[in-house]
Amino acid sequence: MIPKIILSSGPTATRRTIGYLFGKGRANEHIDPHLTASWNSFAPDPGRSPHRDPKDAMAQLVAQLDQPVRMLGDQAPKDTVWHCPVRAAPEDPILSDAQWADVARRMVAAAGIAPDGDEEACRWVAVRHAEDHIHIAATLVRQDGRRPERGYDQRAVQREARQIEVDYGLRRLKPGDGTGAKRPTSKEHFKAKRLGQDAATRDVLRLRVRRAVAAASDEAEFFTLLEATGVTVRLKLGPSGEALGCNFALPGDTNDKGEPVFYAGSTLAPDLSLPKIRKTLATTSPEPVTVRPGDPWHQATAATDRIPHHLTHSDDQTAQGQLAALGATLDLLPINAPAAVKAQLEQAAAAFERATRSRITADLDSTRVLRRSVRAIWRDRPSDSDGAGIAMLLDTVLTAVAFAKHWHRTHQHAQQEAAAEQALIHLQIAYARVAEPVLTGLAQRAPSPQMKRRFAHHLQQAVPEHAERVLNDPAWEALTTVLAEAEAAGHSATTVLDQALGQRTLDDAHSPARTLTWRIRRLGERHASGPRAQAARFRSTTQRPTASAPASTPTPAPQPPPPRRR
Q1: Which residue stretches belong to region Disordered (predicted)?
Q2: Does one domain contain both 24 and 164?
Q3: Which of 517, 495, 515 has its CA nearest to residue 505?
């Protein structure tokens, strides 16, 4: 159940609000508007007054609601109308008028508009014109002439909504922390429908601005990218001429005067104000870290592979920064993705956007390599003819999002945890579609039975606790292929296998052979060491005690969240 508070001002605010609630709606969606409750249970009902002209009943209702405001004259507050739509979830049972009346009374009491038993409270009405929601309208002057003690009314009605969900057996929404992006209003949704848009302007702008932030290397490129995607930018300048903020608009989205409708960046999302955008762009500037030349797919994969360690071993500020960078990665991935998975990746990015913010301030210093390598993928379009590049990256992204879900759970970030869970669903579908053809192609190039037996023997010695799962995994044939290719490139197959096993435990992997395949594919494409270095590495690994604590890996592997499927 979602309540949302809207304040209105001006001498005609009450008449405008009541007129809309008892009117046809912006798209004739208002059916049978009528009162379900009011401050005194005797308020005139313009929707159900068969023996009166509805306009007369509406004028009487407006006059009664406005009476305490008119009594104050010039001393009346600026905002005179408190309007709170309350909407149930689509899957919720249909509530009766009596039940919606109870909901309305609980909402106005929680908000301080009309506390229980207070006969001098504000005047209010609850109007229902659809099965799934009501509108509560109140005037913000009490009948004794005082102002209502609303306090933090938005938080109060949200708390009450969570309790109503329990009491009525409705879908239980996750409590928030005030860092979520502002969602489109019903007016914005109807406008998008009239304009033939698939999404509301606010959501379109949020996506385009986020992608521009993720792709740009500096502020100038950020604005250039926005212009290229059809976004109009209006800067807010200070006395010195320096830009202090920026507003965004889409062509064709205008008000009744034909002027573009601009949205401030901070109203699209809390991290899209100009100062915060500048802070993010600083992590993609050339200094102080330079990414060494190499395959951007591998660099992005390696950087993403470190996110679980940050989420389990770094401080909260660094962890929050990693989540922001992971969100930027998901924002850009759909652009270069195969058509078959583009839609799933876009939905994953939209879902995970909520998981990128909390009340913890993000430290972005450790995210430079990831941001730059992902930007290089977007900019340079590196070759990925067999799909292995995106498959490897998605494999590590899946793990990182699973750890993000666990991190938010431990910090009691309910909305962010749910967002990560939703993103995982879309990522798993996309990963399966990308990975299966690559693994099938690798399996078709599997080495000789003798070589496979040699790899299996070493695996059984190195990780006896996982060997049976790996050998029986459908991806075992693909794993032997990448081991053979690593040997052909000059690596020691046993060494790269040991390195892959030591990167992180396989306990959370649904397909351990598949996970090892991507790790070894990355390791195998690195420059092979000379014979002397290989011999030294061999001597250092012959006494390797266990896979989870290799001699060559002094730092213990991070503990994973509960196992995920992939």
Answers
A1: 522-566
A2: yes
A3: 515
132 and 33 share one domain: yes
- Last residue of a domain, which of 263, 283, 303? 283
In this structure, what is the dihedral angle of CA atoms 184, 186, 188, 194, given to the nearest 10 degrees?
140
Please provide the size of the chain in residues: 566
**121 contacts 147 by C-beta, under 8 angstroms:** no
End of a domain among 119, 142, 168? Answer: 168
The whole-model pTM stands at 0.75
* Residues 436, 405: Cα–Cα separation, whole Å: 25
Q: Mind listing the pLDDT tens digit of every residue in the chain (566 residues)?
A: 889 899 999 999 999 999 999 988 765 568 889 999 999 999 999 988 888 888 999 999 999 999 999 999 889 999 999 999 999 988 899 999 999 999 999 999 999 999 999 999 999 999 998 889 999 999 999 999 999 999 889 989 999 999 999 999 998 888 778 888 888 877 788 888 888 888 999 999 999 999 999 999 999 999 999 999 999 999 998 888 888 999 999 988 898 888 999 999 999 999 999 999 999 998 775 544 444 567 889 899 989 999 999 999 999 999 999 999 999 999 999 998 999 999 999 999 999 999 999 999 999 988 999 999 999 999 888 888 888 999 999 999 999 999 999 999 999 999 999 999 999 999 999 999 999 999 999 999 999 999 999 999 999 998 899 899 999 999 999 999 999 999 999 999 889 999 988 887 777 677 889 989 998 988 887 655 544 444 544 444 444 433 333 333 333 444 445 444 44
Burial of residue 464 (CB within 10 Å: 0-12, 13-18, 19+) is exposed
Place of tokens 């009374």: 105
What's the total number of domains in the chain?
4
Question: What is the span of the domain harbouring residue 268?
Answer: 186-283
